[in-house]
Specification:
It is a single chain. The protein is α+β, with helices and mostly antiparallel strands and about 140 residues long. The protein is built from five helices and five strands, in the order E-H-H-H-E-E-E-H-E-H. It starts with a strand and ends in a 16-residue tail after the last helix.
Length: about 140
């Protein structure tokens, strides 16, 4: 049974594997130093599902007290369809509620209907007229 907890630097290898397997790994953002800085600034911003001493799932958060954004939700393929993604989301949502956050957003690849359906089952709604974009600084 997976235990949900905060990220430690020793989880990096597993988290990187999870992200790569899910085709979510972005080297400029997801390198070890950036994740160290992320949890230094906000220790609750990376959540891990651990089983057999491995991080088999992860979820990243950005939260500013007004709103929150969930990204990089990844569960290792051997552990999918076992409720781990749901546990990660519930844990993150409960933490956000305790902090007074009223809404949370996320991006979903428009070509992944299975993933979209998972989030819909968890109560997430589509945001019309929005496209995710980014800029390097």
């Amino acid at each position: 049974m997976a235990v949900i907890r905060g990220y430690n630097d020793s989880d990096y290898k597993d988290v990187k594997y999870n992200l790569e397997e899910a085709k979510l790994y972005i080297p400029m953002w997801d390198n070890r130093e950036n994740l160290k800085e992320k949890i230094k600034r906000n220790p609750d911003s990376i959540i891990i599902a651990e089983e057999d001493n491995h991080a088999i799932g992860n979820l990243f958060l950005i939260e500013d007290g007004w709103s929150a954004f969930i990204f990089h939700v990844a569960v290792r393929s051997d552990y999918r369809q076992k409720g781990i993604g749901q546990k990660l989301l519930s844990y993150a949502e409960d933490n956000l509620k305790r902090q007074g956050v009223k809404a949370v957003s996320l991006f979903v690849n428009e070509n992944l209907n299975k993933v979209q359906n998972f989030y819909k089952k968890q109560g997430y709604l589509s945001i019309e007229n929005y496209l995710g974009m980014y800029k390097l600084l």
